[in-house]
Amino acid sequence: xxxxxxxxxxxxxxxxxxxxxxxxxxxxxxxxxxxxxxxxxxxxxxxxxxxxxxxxxxxxxxxxxxxxxxxxxxxxxxxxxxxxxxxxxxxxxxxxxxxxxxxxxxxxxxxxxxxxxxxxxxxxxxxxxxxxxxxxxxxxxxxxxxxxxxxxxxxxxxxxxxxx
Length: 164
Hints:
Blueprint: H1 16-44, H2 53-56, H3 58-70, H4 74-88, H5 95-108, E1 119-122, E2 125-128, H6 137-144, H7 150-157
Antiparallel strand pairs: 1-2
Helix pairs in contact: 1-3, 3-5, 4-5
C-alpha cells in the first residue's frame, strides 16, 4: 500500500522538511516491502526461470514483473530481464514491461536507455534519462510490440514538470 501513497510527497501543503520526513518514511517501508517481495518471488519462480503469459496468465506475469522492477536486488532484476528477453518474441511477456526493465537495468549501470521509459528529477525538472538513439526510440518500441510512442510516454510521465 505504501507505493500508492507516494503522492503525499508532492502535497503542496507540506514544507520541504515535512516532505523529506514523508519521503524517508515511505522509502524505508518500500525498501523493506520490495526486498521481502523479491525473496518470496524467487521461491515461486517456475522451472523455466520466469512466468509466461500463455502458461501462467498475464496477471501473474505482470505481477512478477512489478516485483522485479521495484526490487532492490539489481542482480535479480537483470536475471529477470534475461528471462523476459527469451519470452518477448513469443508474446509471453508484455513489451512495455520488458522495455521498462531493460531501461532500468541500463540506467542502473550508468548506460543510456533504449526505449525512453526512465526519468529522474534533474535541476528541478522531471527529465528522461539519456537515450541511446533518440531518433530511433519509436522504431525500437515498435520492433518489440510496445505501441506507445515516446511522445505519449513523455506526456504520461509529465516530462518537464517541476520536481524536488
